[in-house]
Amino acid sequence: MGTSTPNTRPASDTDFLRTVLRMDGWGTGAFGVVMLAGAAALSGPLGLPTTWSIPFAVAMIGGGLALLLIAGYPELVPGHASAVVGVNAVSAAALVVLAFSGVLELTGLGVVFLLIGAVWVAVFAGLQARGVRRAGT
After folding, report:
1. CB contact set of 74 (below 8 Å; sequence gap of 6+)
2. What is the predicted pLDDT for the residue at 2?
3. Half-sphere exposure of residue 73, counting CA atoms within 13 Å on the CB side?
């Protein structure tokens, strides 16, 4: 197990959370770049208008950078880590609602795309929640 001082958690307890935050940050940012670059090409197959996909992509790039920033702090900030869990949980739910709401004229592939995204984000929310509990943040 990692080393600790009397007022901090063992390093291994925070390492898990830090690793999950980094994985989420890199994955979110990379996916945002792909969405931004392919917004026009993906519009037809998914039914996702570029007026939606471009802002989503930019937000994902920003979110990825924020996750990497949070993960890179020498000491993880409890409120930041907990906020990430909440944002990911809300994002997963929003993707499911958007997939079935009819707000967008998504193709079948577009619905599947959003649902896969919801599962992906929910998995990260679960892993991060576990990390928050383990790290005591």
Report:
1. none
2. 46
3. 14
- With helix as H, strand as E and coil as C, how does the chain read? CCCCCCCCCCHHHHHHHHHHHHHHHHHHHHHHHHHHHCHHHHHHHHCCCHHHHHHHHHHHHHHHHHHHHHHHCCCCCHHHHHHHHHHHHHHHHHHHHHHHHCCCCCCHHHHHHHHHHHHHHHHHHHHHHHHHHHHCC
Average pLDDT for 23-32? 96
Q: In this structure, is the dihedral angle defined by the CA atoms of residues 18, 67, 39 and 107, taken in order, positive or negative?
A: positive
Q: Where are the domains of the chain?
A: 12-135
Segment 25-43 mean pLDDT: 95
